């Protein structure tokens, strides 16, 4: 994705809201192959990539995970923390050494409830990310499982 992507935090949030959110950030690093989270686990935090690459995956029948998207600098890793029951809908793995800013989901949700304008900005941003990820998953799964040459439209 380009650095001008509207789902990157720097493009999606007003400066005041970025600064407030970043006030809650904690630096967290991962090594290549580390799992940030697994589908079905409790979603109690999220990350913004500072450097490195993360692959999002989804479990498919047969028990194997299929990569559906790749994230890099400035992108949000995780959206399930915002929606009850706060359970990861995807999995994520560091594909390279990864530097992130980590955020405690309860602290961010509390701040969102206390400041409706901040809450709207964060919710709108996460919603845009969710819509983009849903489309990426759809395209990836069609690539993998749609009958090729059958006239099926992507």
Description:
- Strand 4 and strand 5 form a beta hairpin.
- It is built from 4 helices and 8 strands; from the N terminus they run H-H-E-E-E-E-E-E-E-E-H-H.
- It is an alpha+beta fold and 154 residues long.
- The chain is globular.
- The protein starts with 8 loop residues before the first helix and ends in a 9-residue tail after the last helix.
- Helix content is 34%, strand content 28%.
- Helix 3 crosses helix 4.
- The strands form 2 sheets. A 4-stranded antiparallel sheet has the order 1-8-3-6.
Question: What tags apply to this protein structure?
Answer:
154 residues, alpha+beta, 4-stranded antiparallel β-sheet, 8 strands
What's the layout of helices and strands?
Elements: H1 9-12, H2 15-22, E1 26-30, E2 35-37, E3 45-51, E4 54-60, E5 64-71, E6 76-77, E7 91-94, E8 98-104, H3 105-114, H4 116-145
Antiparallel strand pairs: 1-8, 2-7, 3-6, 3-8, 4-5, 4-7
Helix pairs in contact: 3-4
Q: TL;DR?
A:
The protein has helices at 9-12, 15-22, 105-114, 116-145, and strands at 26-30, 35-37, 45-51, 54-60, 64-71, 76-77, 91-94, 98-104. With 154 residues, the protein is α+β, with helices and mostly antiparallel strands.
């Amino acid at each position: 994705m380009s650095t001008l992507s509207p789902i990157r935090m720097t493009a999606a949030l007003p400066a005041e809201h970025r600064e407030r959110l970043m006030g809650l950030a904690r630096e967290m690093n991962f090594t290549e192959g580390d799992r940030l989270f697994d589908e079905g686990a409790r979603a109690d935090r999220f990350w913004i990539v500072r450097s490195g690459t993360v692959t999002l995956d989804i479990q498919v029948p047969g028990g194997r995970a299929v990569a559906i998207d790749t994230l890099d600098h400035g992108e949000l890793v995780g959206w399930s923390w915002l929606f009850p029951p706060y359970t990861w809908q995807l999995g994520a793995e560091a594909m390279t050494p990864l530097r992130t800013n980590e955020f405690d989901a309860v602290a961010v949700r509390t701040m969102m409830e206390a400041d409706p304008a901040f809450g709207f900005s964060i919710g709108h941003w996460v919603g845009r990310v969710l819509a983009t990820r849903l489309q990426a998953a759809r395209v990836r799964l069609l690539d993998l499982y749609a009958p090729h040459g059958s006239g099926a439209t992507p």
